[in-house]
Amino acid sequence: MLAIRDLHLSFNGNEILKGIDLTVNKGDVVTLIGPSGTGKTTLLRCINCLENPSKGEITLSDLQLNYETISKKDILKLRRKTAMVFQQFNLFKNKTVLENVMEAQIIVQGKKKEEAYKKSIEELEKVGLLDKLESYPSELSGGQQQRVSIARALALEPELILFDEPTSSLDPELVGEVLRVIENVARSGVTIVLVTHEMSFAQSISTKIVFMDKGVIVEEGSPQFIFEDSNNERTKAFLNHFKSNQTVGV
Amino acid sequence: MDIGYMIEIFPKLISTLPISLLIILTSSILGLMLSIVITALRIKRIKFLSPILEAYISFMRSIPILLLLFLVYYGLPVFFSLLNLNMNDLSAIVSAMITLIIFNGAYLSEILRPAYLAVEKGQHEAADSLGYTSFTKIRKFIIPQMAPVALPGLGNAVIYLIHDTSLVFTIGIVDIMGKANLIMANSYGENKVEVFLTIAIIYWMVCLLSDRFIKLCENHTYLRKIENKRAFNSQSLKLHQKFTKRNIKSNLD
């Protein structure tokens, strides 16, 4: 359903992504893991063109695009098939919770108000925030904001949802509520690409784990394979680092 | 002090107010539009245009507005005659407006640009990722979030603009200040203080009105809505407590 071929991206002469090939099937939950500064988030942001890759091709269902020749129209089409959940939530500050979830349905998708309202209520109920409809983002906790932002993404019924470290800027006690919501999304059969540092969560919900290091995909496979059976030195070193960190309690 | 005289000349002075208001309104509206274009061009960082725009803004901010007024009034006809265009009929009022528009175009963009930069990048990215076109994104999210940052500065700029119009009498426009000079000349320089005091009061009234307008705009920003909501909640909470206490009391009675 999603296929990326030979993706390259440079920032000021530094090559961040050095030829990435990635395939995601419908209904997959693909998690990108790896050390910081490896380009996981950058790769995710290439999928909806928040970054400008210097080379590469992307196929998303019936859209087939080359990054070197991509037009504004194509970018818009690509973005309208996907939705993103950001590390910093990025809810619209001048809109209430309900407006945040409703507006894109009306303006971008051209739905009728009533229909958009029903869908918004439905999604907000799933994330447990029906009592906050009239609140502004600044009145919510980080965990609540992130749940709204997930509802905003789901309300558009995208073919693919991109999660960019959705729990990394949350207080530890708020991580759980967001992970539970993401877990439900994953169970509902939506196709997901996720970047996270929550290793046990990644292991439990993913259908495929992709381990990246220094701008390349080192290896990919089932959670079982990556976390238990991998013989790759870099993968093992990275995961061991996590295990030792976790036992120290960091 | 002759208050009777002040009351006598007040209608004469106020009769020229429409000219001042015309200059103020035209130059603030067109100046704001120009500054939006300039801000947009500065943000886009177009290679050849950027240094030109920076030079224009630096020039406009550096020279006194009175000098700029003279440059436009005397200079524009000369400039146009070099292009073989006859612009000798360029009226004083139009010159004054052009002066204030090009001045405010630069000055206001110094207010709008920081306001634009104050909107977090994440807001752009969220709108982009949801598939909004850039025009809708700016209209729905960026301008509403710029407003609370920019409005106090814009309010000050309008007040400066009102003050600046008091200079246009120097190129022969009979605005409030021009009328005041005529009145003083007709009364052989008598009662100067009364005349100046009267126009001071008129300027004060005009500024109060513009303040009101800006406050009105500020009340419509999203930040104010959130504040009002909080205030309302705490107020209704107080009321609730008050009434529940009363109920308890009346029950005890």
From TrEMBL, chain A:
Domain of life: Bacteria
SMART domains cross-referenced by the UniProt entry: AAA
The entry's keywords: ATP-binding, Cell membrane, Membrane, Nucleotide-binding, Transport
Keyword Zinc: no
Main location: membrane
Subcellular location: Cell membrane
PANTHER family, A to Z: AMINO ACID IMPORT ATP-BINDING PROTEIN (PTHR43166), L-CYSTINE IMPORT ATP-BINDING PROTEIN TCYN (PTHR43166:SF35)
Entry membrane topology: Peripheral membrane protein
UniProt-recorded name of the protein: Amino acid ABC transporter ATP-binding protein
Pfam families named in the record: ABC_tran
Record domain ABC transporter: where: 2-239
Membrane-spanning ranges: none
Species of the source: Lysinibacillus contaminans
Listed InterPro entries: AAA+_ATPase, ABC_ATPase_HisP-typ, ABC_transporter-like_ATP-bd, ABC_transporter-like_CS, MetN_ABC_transporter-like, P-loop_NTPase
Molecular function in Gene Ontology: ATP binding
